[in-house]
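User:
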Amino acid sequence: MQQAHGLTTVEGSYEPRRTRSTPYPDSSDAVFRPPTAADGHRMWEIARDSGVLDLNSSYAYVLWGAEFADSSVVVEVEGRVVGFVTGLLRPSEPDTIFVWQVGVDADQRGKGLAARLLHNLMDRTGEQKGTVRLRTTISPDNEASKRTFGAVARDRGMTLTSEDYISADLLGEGHEQEDLYTIS
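Assistant: Predicted structure:
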């Protein structure tokens, strides 16, 4: 890692790895699209069943589908939503999507869907809105998210940086600090 002006540039330490022998689904197996309000409950179920995502109310996921579809994406396999990214366009940085959550069904993990969701979101919003960066928060122990965001940055020839963002004392309930990661 390189330190500059309070930012840490993450270099190659988060190599993507396959956790299963199951091949990645090809384009014909996975359909990526903006979510709708009707997808909200399924997105909530994926987050609930993950065991690691902070669970928002089911109402929040319905709102992501209804009001933030331009900056969010779901993936269907065999007609069933099996993953999502919830995000929002930052009003102060119109070229940036802030990723709130990335969730993938347990039986679909290890197939590259999280990275493909992020690529799809960047491609779609780049074409429609000119967005070129992703930002998200990741807790220090979440190696899977660091690997996923590192892989997306590397695939796109972009840089992944991290910086301190939200301290644990602001979060309460034994929540770890959250560092801000930026792909740009």
